Amino acid sequence: MGIDYTKSEAGRMPSPGTDSGTVTLTKSARSVTLTKPGVDHGAMRVNLNWSSTAPRKRGFLAKLAGVGGGVDLDLGCLYELADGSKGVIQALGNSFGALDRPPFVALDADDRTGATTGGENLHINLERPEVFRRILIFAMIYEGAPNWATLDGKVTMYPSAGPRVEVCLDSPVDGARICAVALLTSTGQELSVRREVDYITGNQADLDRAYGWGMKWAAGSK
Hints:
Elements: E1 3-6, E2 22-24, E3 31-33, E4 43-49, H1 60-65, E5 72-81, E6 86-89, E7 97-98, E8 105-107, E9 120-125, E10 132-143, E11 154-158, E12 164-168, E13 178-186, E14 191-200, H2 204-211, E15 216-219
């Protein structure tokens, strides 16, 4: 399952791409700049889509094995703003965020089956990249067997200017429930994104520790 957040106290464009309108981040070409000084930027959509290819099994033994139904794959992010405030955007705990005020990141839906054409979408307001310090986009298997190899997951970022950016959830580590997909970092003037595709065994608190976010966590549900 997962845990909910409790408020804490405390490169340039690579050449590889699937087509002229897409940049695919790979292990050898990991980063790209999303914003440039002097250019007006709007909201960037971050889309998670997947389709389970695992055969459906039924019956008591299938339920014990955790493969009797579909997979609920969630999109979310950890954020840290320039003023030091931190938090999480995710369906768990109804932490959907806001686009026109801090944290300037919003989640619009919770697709529990993978059957929705639009998948799940985060929106990040890039009009003022200087308000961000870093954003870690992650995908989490909330329900279902943690078998990433059968999901064919992909995260696609749609900046308001420039080509879309794709990150495929490849090199799966089955048994891990969370995948750190991409890390966005700000220099104060520019925002860049780096491919991570780092599978984490555990929950959001373990993801937090792996990336040094330093928040406090409590159990939650949706």
